[in-house]
Amino acid sequence: MNDDAGGAPLVFLVVGEHSGDALGASLMAGLLAKTDGGVRFAGIGGPKMLAAGLERSLFPMTDLAVMGVFEVLPRLPLLLRRMQETADEILRVQPDVVVTIDAPDFCFRVVKKLRAAGGAAPVVHYVAPSVWAWRPGRAAKVAKFLDHLLCLLPFEPPYFHREGLDATFVGHPVVSAGFAHGDGEAFRSRHGVPADAPLLLLLPGSRTGEVSRLLPVFGDTVARLMAQFPGLRVAIPAVDHLRERIRADTRSWPIAVAVVGAEEKHDAFAAATCALAASGTVTLELAMAGVAHAIAYRVNALTGVIGKWLIKTPFANLLNIVLGREAIPEYIQDDCTPDNLARELARLLGDAGARLRQLEGAREALAHFEPDGVAPGERAADVVLSVMKKGKMP
Q1: What per-residue confidence (pLDDT) applies to 305?
Q2: Where do the domains of the chain lie, and which CATH numbers do they carry?
């Protein structure tokens, strides 16, 4: 084990986006609680991990927040440089365990560099590759260089057990993130939204590319809804690094938009009538908060063609995947149009029964996301500590 700081073990974390930052912070809290604060952290993380005890990030986490084949290409030189910097730093500090979180295209290349250079630290990856959705051969590949895999979904571990990789279902962090306990009345009061006014939340994503592609579509959607719902109010909970950009981009919209920070997200959810969101973790957050919603997504046209060819699951939304049916409406790529989105949102805004029916399906799906009532961060911390004690696999 690393002997610095009085023998306190060193955990090196690698995170590439905001959902991973939340996972990392929860894991760090679990590790600190289970060791009475006797663990140190280094690596790459965002604001939540910095608040949880990461002294500094090796470089800005946002450097890695890019998605899609053709979206990556312009930033490839930076990404390759960051991969090497990360591997070099891990080799330099010699941590007791490396925990990579999501962002597999980046993280797995870093791990391969470590293995090639003789790095001895065991590696735990948090968030299993979606081998059940596409590229099932990845299960055998990752088994060659990972020591343990932490899975968010209950049906994932067997895919990796078959390849000889230890994998543990730890549950999804959304179940313990407090989204069911926001103060909707306070949010409406702060932002001058009458108690009887329909409030639509827009969540265009946490990546610059997502916002660039989705926000104009969302704006045109809202314009179509205004005539049917004259009292409509709109709010956008935005990640910090995109808040000012979103505020600037929505100034030309025909309706005033309350662009709020992450600190108001729970309250905004509690206040909402319904929501329109980029596909991703946010759909689980909305379901936990009891907010009916539709999801939308667009990528580069060529990326979309490649994805349609590779992806094997009929749904993009995890709730729909778990249920095996479309409980949450999905509007992906060519279906992501203002007309389609406005039609669906008009249904949700105007029909309380439709909202309730959707939420019944969402609750059914969410029951699969928490194992035995144990918080995911605690369960993940138990696994990381166990792997750290065992050391590197033979």
Answers
A1: 43
A2: 5-171+371-390 (3.40.50.2000), 179-366 (3.40.50.2000)
